Amino acid sequence: MTNWIFLIVGGLFEALFALSLEKISTTTGKTALLWFFSFLASVAISMFMLFKAISGENGIAVGTGYAVWGGIGAVCTVLAGILFLGESTAFWRIFFLCTLVVSIIGLNLVGEH
């Protein structure tokens, strides 16, 4: 269970580093520098959490772990873009976001089979 917590936290920080990149490109001066440091910290934390999730005796399989980590990051990044950056809520965009969530759940259900 602990490995899944590491993976979820890592996925959330993956979304933060993606959003930090966007903020770096749309700000200047000290604000951009703060977002740059946010990017560096969130990349380090995200990668460390992914490492913790897939390592050890009860580590999550690397393929599953990486897919879930990336999926969590992608879903959270899209949702943050919609909620905070005014990105599109077009039907097909939401539809494919939902298929991504279903795929992540499917990977967890089939496990190591």
TrEMBL record:
GO terms for molecular function: transmembrane transporter activity. It is found in: Cell membrane. SUPFAM superfamilies: Multidrug resistance efflux transporter EmrE. Keywords: Cell membrane, Membrane, Transmembrane, Transmembrane helix, Transport. Its main location: membrane. Pfam families: Multi_Drug_Res. The chain crosses the membrane at residues 34-54, 66-85, 91-110. One of its GO terms (cellular component) is plasma membrane. PANTHER family: GUANIDINIUM EXPORTER, SMR FAMILY PROTON-DEPENDENT DRUG EFFLUX TRANSPORTER SUGE. Belongs to the drug/metabolite transporter (DMT) superfamily. Small multidrug resistance (SMR) (TC 2.A.7.1) family. Gdx/SugE subfamily. This is Guanidinium exporter.
